[in-house]
Design brief:
One of its GO terms (molecular function) is hydrolase activity, acting on glycosyl bonds. This protein has a single domain, classed as Jelly Rolls. It is globular. It is mainly β. The strands form two sheets. The chain has an eight-stranded antiparallel beta sheet. Strands 2-3-14-5-10-11-12 form a seven-stranded antiparallel beta sheet. The chain contains four helices and 15 strands. The structure holds 2-acetamido-2-deoxy-beta-D-glucopyranose (2 copies).
């Protein structure tokens, strides 16, 4: 009997103790420059970030906190004009040799040529899961919404609300999933002209530097991670843990249709189709439904 009466109280305390941290702040509250601060800036009311790449260096910010599951939103306006050789990135990453990472990267190009939107995911230190897309819009003309949804069931990459890629949790079948360690959020702009544009053929034109990428409305509705915690703590079904709610377990038919449209028309590289690269030994998740 006593334990029955104690239960609601215990649940209440648990709900408070593990209420997901909402890193809902601005750049100035939630992030700091880890690179190139001298020539980059946070503007406006702390919600506008400008990253600069010039001959001296690129630049980047990272979140103060680490997160385990959440929805990470960023509006980005990419380097306009001749951006060949530059890479703008927005990604989540943990540290160490068995790190997890979820990437959005944008490979610049010569004026009038299309950007490449590059995605990847590392689990327990293993990556090599690239999928690339062409934007169906001009990513330099305006801000677009690049969001990563990451919950215990799946990771979804979204652009302007359209899902473009899913990586589902098949841990029960021996495929590692990013659910063991917290990741920080990183945004950066750097020189990658040894590989980024047409495989490194097109170099940065320093005469037109500085290159500027703009970020705004950073939002992490995410579970704060403060060291090793059990997954059940982060995923406990308090009302605020929206990412475990049924609507986030699988994409709706409407969203699946949108994803098919993007992948049928704008996907330019899929590691799961690259049999030559993997010598016929395709990664196991390539044989599983990814939606
Ligand atoms: C960005 O996209 C995500 C995913 O579709 C959505 O939940 C969010 O409301 C969007 N944010 C903005 C500022 O448009
Ligand atoms: C740049 O444009 C060329 C020509 O259209 C294209 O082949 C290439 O994939 C584009 N993107 C990058 C990052 O090289």
């Amino acid at each position: 009997m006593a334990s029955f009466r104690a239960l609601p109280l215990a649940m209440f305390i648990l709900a408070i103790a593990f209420h997901p941290g909402l890193a809902d702040g601005t750049f100035s509250e939630s992030m700091y420059f880890n690179w190139g601060a001298q020539h980059s800036s946070i503007l406006g009311n702390g919600d506008d970030l400008q990253l600069v790449l010039d001959r001296t260096s690129g630049s980047g910010v990272q979140s103060k906190g680490a997160f385990l599951f959440g929805s990470i939103e960023m509006l980005i306006k990419l380097v306009p004009g001749n951006s060949a050789g530059t890479v703008t990135a927005n990604y989540l990453s943990s540290t160490g040799t068995k790190h997890d990472e979820i990437d959005f990267e944008f490979l610049g190009n010569s004026s009038g040529q299309p950007y490449t939107i590059h995605t990847n995911i590392y689990t327990q230190g293993i990556g090599n899961r690239e999928q690339q897309f062409r934007p169906w819009f001009d990513p330099t003309a305006d801000f677009h919404n690049y969001t990563i949804h990451w919950n215990p069931t799946e990771v979804v990459w979204y652009i302007d609300g359209l899902p473009i890629r899913v990586f589902r949790n098949y841990q029960s079948e021996g495929i590692a999933y990013p659910n063991q360690q917290g990741m920080r959020i990183y945004s950066s702009l750097w020189n990658a002209d040894n590989w980024a544009t047409r495989g490194g053929l097109v170099k940065i034109d320093w005469n037109i530097a500085p290159f500027i990428a703009r970020f705004r409305c950073f939002r992490a509705r995410a579970c704060q991670w403060d060291g090793p915690v059990s997954i059940s703590q982060c995923a406990s079904p308090t009302p605020a843990n929206w990412w475990t709610s049924p609507t986030y377990r699988q994409l709706s038919y409407g969203k699946l249709g949108q994803m098919k449209w993007v992948r049928d028309n704008y996907m330019i590289y899929n590691y799961c189709k690259d049999t030559k690269r993997f010598n016929g030994q395709m990664p196991p998740e390539c044989f599983k439904p990814q939606y």
